[in-house]
Amino acid sequence: MSNPVMMRAAILPLQFLLVNLLLPGCAELDRESAAGFLVIGQDQIYSEVSGHGFPLVLVSGGSGMDLRQWSSVVPALAEDFYLVAYDPRGIGKSDNPTAQYSDIADLEQLLDHLGLDRVGLIGLSSAGGFALEFAVEKPERVAGVVASAPFVPGFEFSQGMLNRLQVFSQAAQKGRESFLDSMFEDPHFIPAPTNASARPIAREIMAENFDKGAGFNPALQMQIDPPLINQLPQIDSPVLLLAGELDHPEVLRRNSFLAEQLPAAVSKVVPQAGHNIPLENPDAFLGAIYPFLRTLNP
After folding, report:
1. For residue 2, what pLDDT band results from cuts at 50, 70 and 90?
2. d(CA 211, CA 11)
3. CA–CA separation, 250 and 294 (whole Å)
4. Residues 145-197: tens digit of each pLDDT
5. Among candidates 42, 13, 49, 73, which has minimal Cα distance to 281?
6. Measured between alpha carbons, how far is 244 from 186 in angstroms, rounded to an integer?
7. 176: closest CA among 215, 216, 203, 196?
């Protein structure tokens, strides 16, 4: 969707900024949690680190949600992995961009700042697509990718999906509550049949992110060229593709296409979940990704 409210939404920054609290080097941060801001140019990027072990980066932004979308799976993952959860520019506590920028360059600077050479990436929706883009542009930094319902620019939507996105876009023009109502009335977005708390949690996160998204200028965001869809066969990193069984059929069709295009991809369908598997069914999400993650650092 081209609407910047959907693609890049974020809450206003907190009144205090823990600038440069994140210290360079993995060893020091391996033993305790930390949170803070990394200054890049005129802007600041927020991240939280926790856990110990092989490094995994949780990329937020998918479905207009900040890093809190990972809150249900972080405690378990932190038992076995060193986690870096971060908000790209225009998301959560990170600044809206003030000049032209590259999400790929931003993530690379964050990895350098933390002293991390090679990581696993986990992303959902548009953030899942970005994780694949990073694997194209910086293959030496990527041990593997978990892409849950990844959005891939250039993939041709069906008319049914175009109609669905048009409903969301028109609702967004009417304001926050209209937009949220349209999203949560959709049977595929967050049905959460076995987790009643997921829907109010997701709605709260999206509501807090909606207003700032109107101030995001998508023209400042640099895109990879050629687009991801034309470079999929070049991704040599192992990729785990996930889709919720209750997600829109278009998402499952797209994952099937990706599985054919990516040289080292496996695909799984997660039960009792729609588009936002980590929030809707965190146990099933963890069960789906753990065998894959263990192969990244044998």
Report:
1. very low
2. 7
3. 30
4. 999 999 998 899 999 999 999 999 999 999 999 999 999 999 999 999 999 99
5. 73
6. 14
7. 203
Peptide bond into 226 cis (omega under 30): yes
Buried b (16+ CB within 10 A) or exposed e, 194-229: ebeebbebbbebbbbbbebbeebeeeebeebeeebb
Q: How confident is the model at residue 211 (pLDDT cuts 50, 70, 90)?
A: confident
- pLDDT-based confidence at residue 5 (cuts at 50, 70, 90): very low
Which pLDDT tens digit goes with each residue over 64-112? 899 999 999 999 999 999 999 999 999 999 999 999 999 999 999 999 9
Bridge partners for 278 per DSSP: none
Tally of CA atoms within 13 A in the half-sphere of 119 that contains its CB: 28
pLDDT at site 153: 87
Q: For residue 206, how far is the Cα from the chain centroid?
A: 14
Which CATH number does the domain housing residue 53 bear? 3.40.50.1820
Sequence-ordered alpha helix ranges (H) in 138-197: 159-173, 176-185
DSSP H helical ranges for 138-239 = 159-173, 176-185, 198-213
Could you tell me the residue range of the domain that residue 47 belongs to?
4-294
Number of domains observed in the structure of the chain? 1
11 pLDDT tier (thresholds 50, 70, 90): very low
- Beta strand 142-148 with 239-244 is parallel
State how far the alpha carbon of 118 is from the alpha carbons of 54, 115, 138, 217, 281, in Å: 9, 10, 10, 31, 28
